[in-house]
Structure to design on (784 residues):
């Protein structure tokens, strides 16, 4: 990698930045889910590793969360942006060199930020835990260079229009920069009180709503038509999806604080807008599933489609939960329970991870010009993710319902802890399966790079007969 | 070739995102900025100090640059007995909370009384200050306000600290740093919910209860009891001591981690704490080879454990 950092831009082979981002994202995924499994073990067995400050739950929980969000998910996004944006503009990436530097600084910056968090240097604000100097590095050293590459590539495109995926990419990377700048103002300017609490959740909500959800969806707008060969079912529904994300997903931040003493008008407004999240959700799911018309056998036979469509199908329970659990009628029961933890993992480990994994699998094969080393291992990874996630989601949902009942009947809290214990063990088992699957994935991708069957120019990976 | 420039789309996007931000950021901040601070909000910001997370004065989250809460039963200058009064002592160099530096955030009435009667704008960081909370009349309404006792009564920070014994000092601000750094708030919320929780966890907070506090650390995932009013339910420092050292000494089913490392190297008498021996003896107790668990060491007055317990005792 080091040699590419100081090469002339023209000499760097196209796709280099995307390959580095792809492998970095997988490594962060392994680390992030490993931490998740370790944390889950501590919730199930509190004396598992004990009395060491650096390995206590309170020091590691936020490292897990940010390693998967900023390491795995966001780097997988950067990887897809580096190869999909130019492909859809029929051009090259604006600056391959900027992309390589972006990847290097991202890895270094994230490792540093997470290390600081790990030793306890935190802002004390959930999801924006990183201290403000690190936030500035993330904004100007990581997100802005990424955005610059995406915007300039779109500007230099050699096609007439801009395809759906690229609207999402260009807009989302702009919006996430705004969200980081505004969401961290409590730290930049020491804003206090409810303003601080509200901006914390404004940030957390919009990172999910204006970055993770739309970019994950945008990826599948590329992968499904590309791999199946079917055109996107409807460009118009794509429009509806895009505009409803901007309008409806950017407004309901206050629904994370339904139990807090925010102004009532704000909570009611957020709750109504929160239900309207179903508009982009239905547009997205129906558009993708209708694109599959006539190619449904690929859901079974093709690994990228299998991942993508699983992610799309998981968007259905995700948005039904997300749309309604934030209304006053339901929120009072599930707020602050394991139900929400299950929902968060449905969003990030279910819906979004499956869509990104598909694009990373597909992109690395195309860029390395090598077919996946072992389809059996890729299928093994798929089932480990799906089964591990399902165990996690179901057990935490049940635990959340128990907790909700305990909460409204105000039973002594320790009885809730006792009742949840089996589900805490199940959550640890599920998380560990995901972790093991990811180690296999890393091995599989490494072997693909060094020993995969070469793909001739002009062919797609899945068109090749499987040799092994 | 003339490409499509998406002029309409770009303007629509700016309009949509801009309107969204006006509704979700500008309107709420105007609304929340006009809230009047309650007595509870004044107490909290004075006890916690400027910032409860990473800051210039405390970059490593060790609890540096935080005020000391003391309970006075006599005037520190004249020595005359007074009603027991909670005073917030800012030794020289300790940064003030937002309510002192930007009184506007205290809201109508509280700001007026704190500035005119309480003389908080005369407080000086370099010299330190002592603050107390008083009640006064503003337009026929009783409101709590901050009084700068250094200006009004001549209570200097060092004299006030020297006038009380260590037992009467509470390191609440430093303790909140421990609470944030150790991630207590990942499991313990600081937000009894409005729809239930009244009986078990106490009254939910109100709109003006947070002015001047940062971070509020509400917590989002309640894996353990809410702590906003914990000291009202359990005010035993002894219980807290056992529970922090090893929660399973007092609650066998607890899944809370042990925080014995907050005791540091030595106990209250200055003897070195032998953690290996303690753990080995505790394991024997768990296996039934001992009748009683080993004795939990008394935390040193300067230890982080003591500060965290001080913070717990403040959450009433």
């Amino acid at each position: 990698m080091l040699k590419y950092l100081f090469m002339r831009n023209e000499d760097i082979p196209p796709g280099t930045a995307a390959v580095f981002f792809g492998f970095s994202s997988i490594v962060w995924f392994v680390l992030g889910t490993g931490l998740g499994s370790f944390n889950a073990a501590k919730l199930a067995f509190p004396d598992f590793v004990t009395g060491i400050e650096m390995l206590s739950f309170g020091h590691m929980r936020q490292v897990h969360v940010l390693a998967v969000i900023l390491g795995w998910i966001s780097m997988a996004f950067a990887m897809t942006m580096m190869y999909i944006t130019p492909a859809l503009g029929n051009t090259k990436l604006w600056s391959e060199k900027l992309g390589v530097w972006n990847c290097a600084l991202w890895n270094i910056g994230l490792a540093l930020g997470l290390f600081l968090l790990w030793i306890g240097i935190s802002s004390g604000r959930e999801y924006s835990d990183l201290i403000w100097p690190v936030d500035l590095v993330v904004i100007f050293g990581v997100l802005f260079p990424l955005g610059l590459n995406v915007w300039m590539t779109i500007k230099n495109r050699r096609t007439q229009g801009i395809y759906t995926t690229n609207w999402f990419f260009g807009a989302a990377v702009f919006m996430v920069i705004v969200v980081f700048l505004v969401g961290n103002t409590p730290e930049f300017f020491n804003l206090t009180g409810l303003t601080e609490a509200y901006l914390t959740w404004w940030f957390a909500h919009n990172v999910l709503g204006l970055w993770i959800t739309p970019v994950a969806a945008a990826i599948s707008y590329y992968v499904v038509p590309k791999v199946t060969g079917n055109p996107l079912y409807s460009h118009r529904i794509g429009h509806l999806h895009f505009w409803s994300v901007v309008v409806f997903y950017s407004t309901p931040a206050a629904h994370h604080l339904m139990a807090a003493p925010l102004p009532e008008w704000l909570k009611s407004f957020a709750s109504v807008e929160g239900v309207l999240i179903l508009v982009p959700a239905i547009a997205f799911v129906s558009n993708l599933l209708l694109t599959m018309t006539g190619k449904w056998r690929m859901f079974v036979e093709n690994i990228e489609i299998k991942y993508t469509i699983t992610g799309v199908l998981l968007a259905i329970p995700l948005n039904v939960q997300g749309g309604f659990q934030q209304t006053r009628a339901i929120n009072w029961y599930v707020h602050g329970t394991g139900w929400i933890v299950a929902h968060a993992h449905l969003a990030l480990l279910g819906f979004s991870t499956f869509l990104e994994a598909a694009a990373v699998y597909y992109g690395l094969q195309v860029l390395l010009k090598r077919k996946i080393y072992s389809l059996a291992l890729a299928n093994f990874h798929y089932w480990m993710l799906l089964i591990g996630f399902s165990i996690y989601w179901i057990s935490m949902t049940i635990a959340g319902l128990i907790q909700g009942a305990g909460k409204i009947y105000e039973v002594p809290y320790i009885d809730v802890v006792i009742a949840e214990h089996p589900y805490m063990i199940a959550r640890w088992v599920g998380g560990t399966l995901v972790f093991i699957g990811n180690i296999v994935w890393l091995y599989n991708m490494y072997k693909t790079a060094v020993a995969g069957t070469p793909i001739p120019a002009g062919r797609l990976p899945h068109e090749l007969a499987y040799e092994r | 070739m003339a490409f499509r420039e998406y002029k309409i789309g770009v303007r629509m996007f700016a309009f949509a995102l801009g309107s969204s931000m006006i509704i979700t950021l500008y309107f709420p901040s105007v609304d929340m900025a006009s809230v009047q601070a309650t007595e509870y909000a004044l107490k909290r910001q004075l006890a916690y100090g400027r910032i409860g997370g990473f800051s210039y004065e405390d970059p490593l989250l060790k609890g540096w640059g935080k005020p000391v809460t003391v309970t006075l039963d006599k005037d520190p200058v004249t020595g005359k007995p007074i009603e027991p009064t909670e005073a917030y002592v800012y030794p020289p160099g300790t940064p003030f909370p937002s309510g002192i530096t930007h009184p506007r955030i205290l809201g109508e009435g509280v700001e007026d009384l704190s500035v005119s009667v309480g003389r908080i704008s005369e407080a000086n960081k370099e010299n330190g200050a002592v603050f107390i909370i008083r009640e006064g009349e503003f337009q026929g309404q009783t409101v709590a306000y901050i009084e700068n006792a250094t200006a009004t009564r001549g209570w200097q920070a060092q004299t006030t600290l020297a006038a009380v014994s260590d037992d009467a000092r509470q390191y609440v601000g430093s303790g909140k740093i421990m609470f944030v750094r150790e991630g207590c708030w990942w499991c313990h919320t600081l937000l009894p919910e409005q729809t239930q929780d009244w009986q078990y966890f106490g009254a939910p907070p109100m709109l003006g209860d947070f002015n001047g506090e940062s971070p509020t650390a509400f917590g989002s995932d309640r894996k353990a009891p809410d702590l906003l009013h914990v000291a009202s339910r359990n005010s035993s420092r002894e219980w807290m001591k056992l529970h922090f050292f090893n929660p399973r000494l007092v609650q066998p089913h607890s899944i809370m981690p042990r925080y014995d490392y907050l005791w540091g190297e030595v106990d209250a008498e200055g003897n070195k704490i032998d953690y290996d021996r303690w753990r080995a003896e505790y394991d024997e107790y768990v296996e039934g080879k001992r009748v009683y668990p080993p004795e939990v060491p008394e935390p040193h007055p300067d230890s982080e454990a003591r500060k965290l317990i001080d913070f717990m005792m403040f959450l009433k």
